[in-house]
């Protein structure tokens, strides 16, 4: 049983056996998730009312959304504006783990080159256990180059550091008291615990990470990208599916849901302003071209988030709830 996993013992379970992975990627249906915070209006001043946010998150869990997703934004950058959920993602994930029971939760994404890989390995494995296997570990190189000088890191080397940090984490998760050496340090005789519930927490690459698609296919358990025009996205997915790759594919979509369910679609940044009926059609098109999960971002919406959730739950979600995961 997943809940009986020993955090001091190496696991041989595949990541596909974990309940979070199975809830988000049930293989028989595309599923929907939501980016945190559950809020609309000003991305620079997100809702930080924790009781309100937890109430909304528990509501979407009960309704059948597959997951909620958090971002890693170490610094507020006026050139970008958006500060995500404001809270540190690792700290917030611990709070969410205790506030939910079946909802998957993921990072989209942790900026891996800016964090020490041994700390990150321990944090990810800890959240893996605290959630009972509901965590999806999304990683990226980050696109806010102003953050790198603040952390004493070289933005020009972040592609190499990204690969190296993932390798260090993988070795920390799958070995016991064996030496690890990399450009940023070395560990002899020590051991990172807890060990994850499977061979590793499900590892999702988010965005290009400055790597080739072949690299993503080899190293990721799933891949996440952003909204593109439908035909462009179709071509991108075809690249992910090369060489017989059947691993899951996910994408984010900004959404301003129109109060009129029949309103046509109009493009907004990385998404759509659209009524519920046309949104369902767009999601069906994405599912047909091979998208397994869509992360809906509501922050650029113009309606109260409670009303948007009402409409999504009633008009959109029923067609995309997937299969309930089996635990154990």
UniProtKB/TrEMBL annotation:
Query: One Pfam family for this entry, by name?
Result: Bac_luciferase
Annotated ranges, domain Luciferase-like = 30-242
**GO molecular function of the protein, one example?**
monooxygenase activity
The protein's UniProt keywords, in alphabetical order, are: Flavoprotein, FMN, Monooxygenase, Oxidoreductase
Question: InterPro entries this protein is in?
Answer: Diverse_substr_monoxygenases, Luciferase-like_dom, Luciferase-like_sf, Luciferase-type_oxidoreductase
- Entry protein name: Luciferase-like domain-containing protein
Gene source species: Corynebacterium efficiens (strain DSM 44549 / YS-314 / AJ 12310 / JCM 11189 / NBRC 100395)
Q: What is the lineage of its organism?
A: Bacteria, Bacillati, Actinomycetota, Actinomycetes, Mycobacteriales
